[in-house]
Amino acid sequence: MEGLTRVPVREQEPEVRAANFEEVCLGYNEEEAVAEAKRCLNCKNAQCMKGCPVSINIPAFVEQVKNGDFTKAYEIISESSALPAVCGRVCPQESQCEGKCIRGFKGDPVSIGKLERFVADTARENGIKPKTAAEKNGKKVAVIGGGPAGLTCAGDLAKMGYDVTIFEAFHKAGGVLGYGIPEFRLPKSIVQKEIDNLKNMGVKVETSMVIGKTFTIDELMKEEGYSAVFIGSGAGLPSFMHIPGENLNGVYSANEFLTRINLMKAYQFPSADTPVYVGKNVAVIGGGNVAMDAARSAKRLGAENVYIIYRRSEEEMPARLEEVHHAKEEGIIFKMLCNPTKIIGDENFWVKEIECIEMELGEPDASGRRRPSPKAGSEFTLDMETVIVAIGQSPNPLIKQTTPHLETQKWGGIITDEQTGATSIPGVFAGGDAVTGAATVILAMGAGKTAAKNIDEYIKNHQ
Ligand code: FAD
Ligand code: SF4
């Protein structure tokens, strides 16, 4: 039957891309995008929209792609999303909009993500920008953190006329989009362009401003004149395994490894200032997107054997299917049902070997995934020069420590009202990874949007 399969997207060949940091996916051209858009049935009760946390009017924008009116398509997307070129590249569409697309019942779902990317890229290449903000209303809102949650909240508030300032701890805004997700999945120039669009709408971005050090939230509200604050400070504190040898030279948190490569451009060393060391054999511990990004980056930096070491089976791996598929194509070795027990060093305290134990799966645990347990006597060692730990992140405690009365979970997540994003402090809202723990770009954006709407209501009710 016609239209069952999606228009394939062009990619760099695996053996070529495994040695460079250029974008893997080349995206649709005009002809391909129109052909793919024609597969959309323009459903009256569009299920795809129910899967989109920022409620993009998917059938309407796809219809415009079908008609060849890419500017109109961009206007439709921009009404709901400040970061379409980003989302078109990194959103887990397979479990969101595309996971619900009616076309997917018999054949491939419409390639909504790739169409979104095409529309955003075409607009950028033709200098088309989202509509500028409404007239200013004289009220100031502070946004802590320049990741997807903060950027979305700031963009929506600017559209409503607020004077918004983002305070970002790093020297560049973008959050994980800038420091975590590698160039070959998300070029940094594209992230910057979407941030520039927000600046054009009047959003101010103050970098190298650590809230909790430069200002506290209390100072922002009582001394700096902000009517409300949004906390979108993410979950940037890496977790470790707490096994012997984790303090050896050659062991990184995935955060440090990826920040050096992406934000500090270590892959361009020596023309960039920051180097990063990878040995011949690299072990990445974990099975999420972060682990895939670290492994694929290590391969591109010249490692011969890169292992993903994960304690459950491939079925339970939280990484996006596309990332796992790309990693395998690039030669990453998957060691499933396997857990590190010890990192062994040489006489100079550099990593020499990693000891692991085989695992087996039992009954499901609280997360619904089958619980792994070690198989007695199955220990083995692998020669290793670099170990990258990618087993999770939690919120940095600084904001909690410097904000009395801000209620948080035991693990550090800020407690909010699910419907509004309001925290335990009047006028202070929060969203994204700082609330949920490590999640996704689009969920962070959805939380930023919800908070913006409720900040507006809060300010109107308290003036
Ligand atoms: P963040 O993006 O973490 O941004 C928070 C910002 O706040 C940071 O810039 C930080 O510097 C700043 N900040 C922190 N504390 C302070 C402070 N005290 N003062 C001022 N600023 C502060 N999700 C996907 O959907 N698809 C993917 O493919 C994907 N891949 C990923 C790959 C990696 C390597 C990582 C780490 C995550 C990935 N994710 C992916 C998850 C996704 O990036 C996050 O869920 C998302 O970025 C969360 O957005 P956020 O705005 O809440 O936080
Ligand atoms: Fe088009 Fe699929 Fe959405 Fe229907 S569910 S409108 S086919 S993208």
List the helices and strands and how they pair.
Blueprint (H helix, E strand, L loop, with lengths): L9 E2 L2 H4 L7 E3 L2 H8 L9 H4 L7 H10 L2 H11 L3 H7 L6 H4 L11 H14 L14 E5 L3 H12 L3 E5 L8 H4 L8 H13 L3 E3 L10 H6 L5 E4 L5 E2 L12 E3 H9 L18 E5 L3 H12 L4 E5 L11 H9 L3 E3 L2 E8 L5 E14 L5 E5 L5 E4 L2 E4 L3 E2 L3 H5 L25 E3 L2 H4 L4 H21 L2
Parallel strand pairs: 3-4, 3-6, 4-5, 6-18, 8-16, 9-10, 9-16, 10-11
Antiparallel strand pairs: 1-2, 7-17, 12-13, 13-14, 13-15
Bound molecules: flavin-adenine dinucleotide and iron/sulfur cluster.
Task: Give a structural overview.
By secondary structure, this protein is an alpha/beta fold. The chain contains 18 helices and 18 strands. The protein has helices spanning 14-17, 30-37, 47-50, 58-67, 70-80, 84-90, 97-100, 112-125, 148-159, 176-179, 188-200, 217-222, 254-262, 289-300, 321-329, 398-402, 433-436, 441-461, and strands at 10-11, 25-27, 140-144, 163-167, 204-206, 228-231, 237-238, 251-253, 281-285, 305-309, 333-335, 338-345, 351-364, 370-374, 380-383, 386-389, 393-394, 428-430. The strands form five sheets. It has a five-stranded parallel sheet. The chain has a five-stranded parallel sheet with strand order 8-16-9-10-11. Strands 12, 13, 14 and 15 form a four-stranded antiparallel sheet that branches. Helix 15 links the parallel strand 10 (305-309) and strand 11. Helix 2 (30-37) packs across helix 4, helix 2 packs antiparallel against helix 8 (112-125) and helix 9 (148-159) runs parallel beside helix 18. The longest helix is centred in the last third of the chain and has 21 residues, at 441-461. The radius of gyration is 23 Å and the shape is globular. The termini are far apart. The mean pLDDT is 94. The structure holds flavin-adenine dinucleotide and iron/sulfur cluster (SF4). Flavin-adenine dinucleotide is lined by residues 90-92, 144-150, 167-170, 175-176, 180-181, 209-212, 232-234, 236, 258, 289-290, 293, 320, 396, 398-399, 432-434, 438-442, 444.
